[in-house]
Amino acid sequence: MAAARPLNRIPAFDGLTFGRLISPPPQAAINKVNHTAFGNSARWRFQPGTYTTKQVVEHVAPLLNSLIAELGQDPPGAEPSRKILIDGLRSCLATTGRESTLPIGDAINMAGESARKVMAKQAQRIGSLLVRCAQNAPPPDVTAPQMTVRSPCEGHVWTREVAGLLIGPRSNGNLMQVYNEWLHQVVLLRDGLLPFENFDEVRLTIKQEGTRPVDDIRSKFLMQIMTAQVKRTTVVDVAKALTASGLPSGGYGFQYGSGIVMPLSLFTGSSSILLKYVPATVDDSNHQELLFDYENKDYFSVPRHEISVDEVTSNASSISSTNSNSVTSNPVFSSFAIENPKETDCFSQIRHIKLHGSFEDGAQYSVDVGQITRGLRYAYRAVDTNCEDGSAEASSFALHKASDVLSLPDLVTSTSHSDGVRLHVIQAGSGVARMALLGKLYPENVVLVNGEKQSPTSALGVGKGFGPQFVIIGGDVVG
């Protein structure tokens, strides 16, 4: 009897089980023969298979090696051709400079953690890895045939040294295209890895055209990065290009043959725009590729439930303790469920993920995980210092149990000051309760407060200035 596969657990949900870990498919062997032979030359192609990032670079290395072999021996005292060409790649992958294919390095020093800044950091980390992989790729094989490839001009700017080498007397028109294809394959690999926080771990499903599928989404993605208007659905679509290209556009995560890809925020409790790859499966149906989509495409149009006020206080110290049993309630049972959308048939590749739970008092809840990701994205984080303008003493706080809020219908909101309440305070004694509340509250004026380090008044001064605020205390991710 085969041993049971280990469970996949998510820290931000108190280690709640989310599928089972798997062994990714075997990595494709790196063969010297990854081309179609035509007499003494060969037309380059990629051997389809499952690859790591390092292996992809190794698999396009024959293009570079063929180019170096065709250039012939370097003149005495000249800089080695291999170094010149790899340095050209380094310049193209850089985030600053004349040859940069993603000139966003200025964002590194910007305040905050904008999507542009996150992608600039990603580009630098990935670029450094790819250059190291190129440097360590297998050396040229003198017996390998000359590679030919049709590579349209992609507009990459060569360094002056590369231009001098490839436009000089040792080169020819075919070698220029070979270099262009090698360069573009690696640049596309960089761009296709940008969405992944753990880009060095993700397993890539590569077809005969190599990383070229990224071309279809690249221009749109780079334009969003350059204009600081990165959409999360675009990030997910870019992630699919080299993993699950058969899935439709949209969604917030997906499953494919080598694992699952989900928002990093679900693992860390942050608002990160990045994704995380995990070698796991959450649905063992006949569909190897599944798209995890939002239950409600437009949450703004979802019905809302106006919360009632049962208890009001102006004493912040009375609700600062996260151990107060009168206001703290935690689920006694929680689990994830994979569901088919009601409007689709059994052959659909789309799934909804729900977080179900129940409390000791019998209250039950069901929250869409997609909506939780929205809650994390739009939630404000409380400041470390308390409000100093005197408004804390003048504010009224309404206390709510998590079980009471989560058992309400629709998305919960508060739009009126008529009851004198400025802050609706909910104590989440666990990560599961915190995440469920983020998926239940309408994501407009929700503030997260660290239960051990901050008081409810630290929520004052952040968020929108109109309407009451919802304050979730506690349930922070540890570690």
Keyphrases for this structure?
single chain, 479 residues, alpha/beta, 7-stranded mixed β-sheet, 6-stranded mixed β-sheet, 29% helix, 20% strand, elongated
Q: How do the strands and helices of this protein lay out in sequence?
A:
Layout: E1 7-10, E2 16-21, E3 35-38, E4 41-44, E5 49-51, H1 53-71, H2 81-93, H3 115-136, E6 146-148, H4 160-166, H5 173-193, E7 204-206, H6 215-226, H7 232-241, E8 253-256, E9 259-263, H8 265-268, E10 275-278, E11 280-281, E12 290-292, E13 304-306, E14 312-313, E15 333-339, E16 350-358, E17 364-368, H9 369-378, E18 380-381, H10 391-394, E19 397-400, H11 402-406, E20 411-413, E21 423-427, H12 431-440, E22 446-449, E23 469-473
Helix pairs in contact: 1-3, 1-5, 2-3, 2-5, 3-5, 6-7, 9-12
| Contiguous runs where pLDDT drops below 50 for at least 5 residues | 35-40, 388-394
Number of strands: 23
Fraction of helical residues: 25-40%
Which structural class matches the secondary elements?
A: alpha/beta
Largest sheet: 7 strands, mixed
Count up the helices.
12
What share of residues are in beta strands?
15-25%
| Average of per-residue pLDDT values | 86
What distance lies between the first and last C-alpha atoms, to the nearest angstrom? 37 Å
| Radius of gyration computed on alpha carbons | 27 Å
- Structural shape: elongated
